[in-house]
């Protein structure tokens, strides 16, 4: 039954992409997109829910759904659904990109659903090499979406994203080859890189080969995750992509690649004597330190959200690097809370940019005069991302820091706490400037009720409150133990 659901979950978006790529009326394409998105999200949640609730990994011949994968799968499903539902409004306000107007909708929808299918597949595929191939596939589809407006700045951002992340993935591939050579003696099959096989064989891995493979794989994946100092594609791509795609990049793509890095870390930890944790802690602190000055800068809204992504990927790296039950509980809550809040921020950018296109190139000011509904959504997003209680990100960051203390990483915790405090003040300052400050009146041409955004904001608020409750219940539960067990 589960295998049928997994196959259907991956097949439906691929079939939808094929159908949506065909020439046709925009209205029909919008309805097909919505119907396919609801089906895909339902299937993905049906696969994920049993693993989140109880039980160990469920596996087939080529797939596996473990508790950690199920959490990420649920996040990809929800963010994909919300982004798909937000896409028709984006396309309605768009013009000609690098494809003709009559083909723009089909091109966008086809690339979007292929991107979504690849993300879902990464979360369930039971092999490191295949996961790498799928991550590369996400690059191809999402780079086209980043550049889809056809603006010179968007084309540059798309190329930059494509080149830099492909270089990083090339480094990761070299690490996978080193790992395969180290593990494959006496086996010589691709199955050597199945997640359970890596767990079983890692204890016999030569320490030098294990360390080299770990550094290359995590260093290469860091480029795609957007960890500092190899994050330079991230602000440009997030800024230039259509808002629903920016939400997918920040709230679904980055965590999905991080899931692969997490699995590699857990699998190779016994063979690398704590080096994997040290690497993640280094990426985490570097990402926080690089992000904080930008959170204090006067930036356009989408660029501010992009640097917030850098900060939160750093928080997740710290949580994974601490390797303690409290930190693991915090990682789970943080992945979901960041995804919801960040996606809402990008969805809110759409009506704001329609009402005041100048906001794409200047700091966010007087947002309420451009779109009251958009300003409210931005306020919810930034307050949540800042970690202001009762945001679930407050609880998740607290759990991660407490987990760091339990792991004996006091110096790292102190440094992280200081950087998080500075990041909090920066985002609150940006919110006050954006909502309260005054600017010359903007054109209200095109202002319209944003009922869809209001509904999404209400749903996100409910889910964020539920996550805050989960953050209270999760520590000490059996779920955390299963999450730390990986796919072994």
From TrEMBL:
<feature type="transmembrane region" description="Helical">
    <location>
        <begin position="453"/>
        <end position="474"/>
    </location>
</feature>
<feature type="transmembrane region" description="Helical">
    <location>
        <begin position="399"/>
        <end position="432"/>
    </location>
</feature>
<dbReference type="InterPro" id="IPR052175">
    <property type="entry name" value="ComplexI-like_HydComp"/>
</dbReference>
<dbReference type="InterPro" id="IPR001750">
    <property type="entry name" value="ND/Mrp_TM"/>
</dbReference>
<feature type="transmembrane region" description="Helical">
    <location>
        <begin position="6"/>
        <end position="23"/>
    </location>
</feature>
<dbReference type="GO" id="GO:0005886">
    <property type="term" value="C:plasma membrane"/>
</dbReference>
<feature type="transmembrane region" description="Helical">
    <location>
        <begin position="276"/>
        <end position="301"/>
    </location>
</feature>
<keyword id="KW-0472">Membrane</keyword>
<dbReference type="GO" id="GO:0008137">
    <property type="term" value="F:NADH dehydrogenase (ubiquinone) activity"/>
</dbReference>
<feature type="transmembrane region" description="Helical">
    <location>
        <begin position="107"/>
        <end position="125"/>
    </location>
</feature>
<feature type="transmembrane region" description="Helical">
    <location>
        <begin position="161"/>
        <end position="181"/>
    </location>
</feature>
<dbReference type="GO" id="GO:0042773">
    <property type="term" value="P:ATP synthesis coupled electron transport"/>
</dbReference>
<dbReference type="GO" id="GO:0016491">
    <property type="term" value="F:oxidoreductase activity"/>
</dbReference>
<feature type="transmembrane region" description="Helical">
    <location>
        <begin position="35"/>
        <end position="56"/>
    </location>
</feature>
<dbReference type="InterPro" id="IPR003918">
    <property type="entry name" value="NADH_UbQ_OxRdtase"/>
</dbReference>
<feature type="transmembrane region" description="Helical">
    <location>
        <begin position="367"/>
        <end position="387"/>
    </location>
</feature>
<feature type="transmembrane region" description="Helical">
    <location>
        <begin position="313"/>
        <end position="333"/>
    </location>
</feature>
<feature type="transmembrane region" description="Helical">
    <location>
        <begin position="201"/>
        <end position="223"/>
    </location>
</feature>
<dbReference type="Pfam" id="PF00361">
    <property type="entry name" value="Proton_antipo_M"/>
</dbReference>
<keyword id="KW-1133">Transmembrane helix</keyword>
<keyword id="KW-0560">Oxidoreductase</keyword>
<feature type="domain" description="NADH:quinone oxidoreductase/Mrp antiporter transmembrane">
    <location>
        <begin position="126"/>
        <end position="417"/>
    </location>
</feature>
<keyword id="KW-0812">Transmembrane</keyword>
<feature type="transmembrane region" description="Helical">
    <location>
        <begin position="68"/>
        <end position="86"/>
    </location>
</feature>
<feature type="transmembrane region" description="Helical">
    <location>
        <begin position="244"/>
        <end position="264"/>
    </location>
</feature>
<protein>
    <recommendedName>
        <fullName>NADH:quinone oxidoreductase/Mrp antiporter transmembrane domain-containing protein</fullName>
    </recommendedName>
</protein>
<keyword id="KW-1003">Cell membrane</keyword>
């Amino acid at each position: 039954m589960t295998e049928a659901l997994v196959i259907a979950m991956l097949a439906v978006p691929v079939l939808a992409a094929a159908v949506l790529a065909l020439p046709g009326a925009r209205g029909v394409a919008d309805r097909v997109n919505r119907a396919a998105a609801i089906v895909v999200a339902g299937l993905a949640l049906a696969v994920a829910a049993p693993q989140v609730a109880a039980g160990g990994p469920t596996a087939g011949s080529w797939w596996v759904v473990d508790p950690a994968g199920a959490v990420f799968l649920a996040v990809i499903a929800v963010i994909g659904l919300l982004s798909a539902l937000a896409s028709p409004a984006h396309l309605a306000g768009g013009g000609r990109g690098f494809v003709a107007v009559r083909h723009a909708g089909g091109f966008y929808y086809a690339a979007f659903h292929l991107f979504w299918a690849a993300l879902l597949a990464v979360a369930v595929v039971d092999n490191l090499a295949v996961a790498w191939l799928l991550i590369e596939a996400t690059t191809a589809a999402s780079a086209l979406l980043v550049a889809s407006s056809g603006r010179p700045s968007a084309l540059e951002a798309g190329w930059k994203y494509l080149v830099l992340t492909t270089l990083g993935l090339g480094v990761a591939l070299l690490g996978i080859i080193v790992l395969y050579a180290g593990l494959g003696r006496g086996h010589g099959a691709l199955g050597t890189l199945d997640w359970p096989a890596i767990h079983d064989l890692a204890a016999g891995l030569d320490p030098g080969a294990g360390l080299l493979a770990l550094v290359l794989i995590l260093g290469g994946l860091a480029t795609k995750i957007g960890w500092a100092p190899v994050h330079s594609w991230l602000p440009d791509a997030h800024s230039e992509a259509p808002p629903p795609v920016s939400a997918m990049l920040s709230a679904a793509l980055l965590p999905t690649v991080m899931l692969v890095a997490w699995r590699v870390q857990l699998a190779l930890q016994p063979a690398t004597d704590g080096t994997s944790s040290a690497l993640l802690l280094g990426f985490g602190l570097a990402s926080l330190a690089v992000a904080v000055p930008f959170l204090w800068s006067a930036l356009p809204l989408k660029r501010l959200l992009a640097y917030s992504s850098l900060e939160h990927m750093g928080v997740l790296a710290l949580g994974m690097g601490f390797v303690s039950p409290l930190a693991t509980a915090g990682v789970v809550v943080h992945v979901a809370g960041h995804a919801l809040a960040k996606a809402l921020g990008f969805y809110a950018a759409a009506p704001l940019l329609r009402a005041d296109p100048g906001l794409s190139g200047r700091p966010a000011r007087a947002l309420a005069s451009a779109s009251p509904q958009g300003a409210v959504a931005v306020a919810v997003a930034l307050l949540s991302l800042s970690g202001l209680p009762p945001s679930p990100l407050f609880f998740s960051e607290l759990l991660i820091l407490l987990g760091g203390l339990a792991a004996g990483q006091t110096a790292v915790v102190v440094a992280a706490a200081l950087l998080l405090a500075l990041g909090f003040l920066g985002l609150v300052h940006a919110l006050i400037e954006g909502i309260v400050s005054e600017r010359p009146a903007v054109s209200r041409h095109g202002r319209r009720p944003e009922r869809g955004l209001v509904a999404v904001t209400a749903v996100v608020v409910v889910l964020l409150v539920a996550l805050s409750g989960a953050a209270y219940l999760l520590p000490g539960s059996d779920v955390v133990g299963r999450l730390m067990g990986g796919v072994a």
